[in-house]
Amino acid sequence: MIIRTLQQIAVMCGGEPGSAADTEIVLSGVVTDSRKITAGCLFVPLAGDQFDGHNYSAAALASGAAATLWQKDKGAAPEGAVILVEDTLAALQRLAAAYLSETASQVVGITGSNGKTTTKDMVAALLEGQYKVHKTQGNFNNHIGLPLTVLSMNEDTEIAILEMGMSSRGEIALLASLASPDIAVITNIGESHLLQLGSRKEIARAKLEIAEGLKPGGLLIYNGDEPLLAEVMAEPSFHAPAGLKTLRFGFAEDNDAYPTGMMTHTNGMTFTTVYLTEERAFSLPLPGRHNVSNALAALAVARHFGITETNIEEGLKRLKLTGMRIEVMMTASGLTLLNDAYNASPTSMKAAIDVLQSMKTGGKRIAVLGDMLELGPHEAEFHREIGEYLDPELTDMVLTYGPLSALLAEEAVKSFGPERVFAFTDKEELSAVLNSTCSSKDIVLFKASRGMRLEEALYSLNEHFKQT
Length: 468
What we know:
Elements: E1 3-5, H1 6-13, E2 16-17, E3 26-28, E4 30-31, E5 42-43, H2 57-62, E6 67-71, E7 82-85, H3 88-102, E8 106-111, H4 116-127, E9 133-135, H5 145-151, E10 159-163, H6 171-179, E11 183-186, H7 194-197, H8 200-207, H9 209-212, E12 219-223, H10 227-233, E13 245-249, E14 261-265, E15 268-275, E16 278-284, H11 289-304, H12 309-317, E17 327-330, E18 336-340, H13 346-358, E19 365-370, H14 379-389, E20 397-401, H15 405-416, E21 421-424, H16 427-437, E22 443-447, H17 455-467
Parallel strand pairs: 4-5, 5-6, 6-7, 8-10, 8-11, 9-10, 11-12, 12-13, 18-22, 19-20, 19-22, 20-21
Antiparallel strand pairs: 1-3, 2-7, 14-15, 15-16, 17-18
Helix pairs in contact: 3-5, 4-11, 4-12, 8-10, 14-15, 16-17
């Protein structure tokens, strides 16, 4: 974590000490939640529409914070060590950028409509065998989370792997300006945030803001199967940094990195691709063709840093993903649960269905699918498209939850028949049917947008099988 004197932090964040007597106080770490104060930390009070952290600055100091930032327009500062700033959020971001520039760490920035968290976890697993690595935890990938991720980094970190999320234009540009990546990765362009941005091309423009924030001579690793990225990069408004290098990955053979073979097995995927100078096989402890694509991006980063084949193999073995991203759970009875209920878009929904339909089972394959949110005016069409995408030869039952997913069910009935498709608007009713329908040899996929909280039905099913 950042360790600096109050005077040093004041300079770094563009503030000024409230008192000359406090300038040599040493601050360790940064906290924005007054309930999570650590001894000696700097408390940064942030203000929102429904809250104002300045109301808790005095309590933070009393709880052990060594100092607090204080926005000048908030009136008299509390007693104690204070750094006065014009805007606490801007000061937090400026502090993170300054701290990152003072370290010797190289930065890998990762964005994309789907797969960015999985790819971040893969990159970290591959690099940490040879480097001191720090990565984004949880969903700390926005204008507040990224600065906090940087400021929690040890100063001897060699590579920082920073996930960058967005919901509108300009957000990735801000994050990239703070992080100044050496390498930028764009996993794909999907339909997430169509409601805010209006078109997939506009989403591509937003994601490519990460490339414009690269250091001169930086490397852009992007999905070559997505033509919109190349189209936007050819636009006059795209400003590439001097000496930009690129590497394209994907399934098409005209990419720089592509799989020469793929095989699904019980424990995940095995694929072959050229790594360094030879074709090699890699075992990925994750199901799904889409995860091979994510792995190709991660391998491209690893190749840039000269990671050995041995460390690649060891890294893939210890790979641990952030929760609810095709998390495979086995009950004691043998029932397999696929938990991918963290988020959903048409692209990721199809990928999750592909995983379910590729898995071998002595029982039933059951798809439990909830609403995909924030898809804009074409949301009904997208849900019907998923209903049509499901293959009745490879999926035995479809259960949907939510008003939009009822449209998915309507479309699925056309090929599955009414006896294999069920639509619910009550989660308890959904859980009751699942609990009575599933058997120990079944595989059940749970996939929906975060706001649907579909994992609650998964947990209910898991608890039911613990008791039976």
